[in-house]
Amino acid sequence: MSQTFRILNFGCRASQADGAALKAQLIASGFGEAGDDVASDVTVLNTCTVTGRADAEIRQTIRRIHRKEPQCRILVTGCYAQRAPNEIAALEGVAWVVGNSHKHSVPEILANGLRGAAPVLPTVWVGEISREFHFLPVFPDDRTRPTLKVQDGCNARCSFCVIPAVRGPGRSLPPGSAVAQIQALERRGVREVVLSGINIGSYGRDLTPRLTFLDLLERILSETSLPRIRISSIEPMDVSAELIRLVASERRLADHFHVPLQSGCDRILRQMNRRYWTSHYAERIHAIREALPNAAIGADVMVGFPGETGSDHEDSRRFIESLPFTYLHIFPYSARPSTPAALRRDQVNGRVAAERGRDLRRLVRRKRERFLKTQVGRDLSVLILHGPGEQNCEGLSSNYLTVALHESGLPPNTLAILQVTGVERDGLAARLPSDSCLSPV
Predict the structure, then answer these.
(1) Is residue 388 exposed (0-12), middle (13-18) or buried (19+ Cβ within 10 Å)?
(2) Which of 97, 151, 335, 415 matches a 20 to 30 Å C-alpha distance to 5?
(3) Inter-residue contact 148 to 138 (CB < 8 Å)
(4) Residue pLDDT, tens place only, 31-52
(5) Is residue 45 a contact partner of residue 78, using CB atoms and an 8 Å limit?
(6) How far apart are CA 212 and CA 220, in angstroms?
(7) Does an H or E element contain 195, and which?
(8) Angle at alpha carbon of residue 72, lines to 102 and 74, rounded to 5°
């Protein structure tokens, strides 16, 4: 009987893509996936370390697993494992710590380690991260919208960010491999793929000949027929006029731009070592809205960066209010070891940062409500994600809105043109028009 595993993923889309690929590798290596309510021989934690809260959640998860299943051996991999392997190895129940440097070797490490008795001390596999792109094939499993990681690592040096240290330098998946992966997913019936990376706009700068992310998109569009391709997140410096025109003119590209902002105050942007001014950022966001009047536009915003004053926060708030955002990911600054920002003495009180976050959430909630109301009466292209019953199903629109369809139970992985009938909770309600267009698996 094969050894069984369970994998728990934490963090960003790129990390989720790593986890899905790792799961496929383990299954291909002969491991069996344990059911939700079944004990497993091994639990793999694919970790994030972008905030202190992420680290704490992972430590808590390790303790909970060991308490519930003391015979289960735990392997911890990913960014937290790369950053603080000894900290993780000291936790009871951990048998292996495998950094991003050796993540591609997890099946081999497990196969060898499970042959014998459990070691007295955890085995740690962490080293320098290769400049090569370790390609892990993507297979759709329980996800209707699989993520294809086409880029990894980052050469930027934002003063608050630990990711370059745990992900290594920027490196790219060759375009031929990316196209082949999408073609394989297409053959399996996938209707939407999310392209992700740690800094996806830097795609191709390490390749010979040098390419751009726009080059990759154009090749994917010309060599595949996948119905929908979504860009996960792209830095403002890489949102070019050419990219905006391509998304606006190509129906297969989702009407969706996620452009990290971090702060709407120029003084704080400089201290963050971000490479743009608010005026440059605003130009790009307004250009997106002009070309794509119905697009989703989102951003990451940090509150409580060291030295951020009440006046800085008000500047940021006014700037955010002036732009046509449809959603924001708002989070408090978290000091990350060995980053310049963590060494500063002017750290902002956590309660102050939390209140600033609540202030921005109230603001963006009003923006989102206004945007949702503009969708009523429109026809939207919606990918059905799941249908809990014959009379209920839920999907995601091209412009990144949750859509509930109550009158008909369409199967998951169906693309449908739905007519929006109203606003429902934080999303939309819709119905099938009489001349509906369906694209099932």
Answers:
(1) exposed
(2) 151
(3) yes
(4) 999 887 778 999 999 999 999 9
(5) yes
(6) 13
(7) strand 192-197
(8) 25
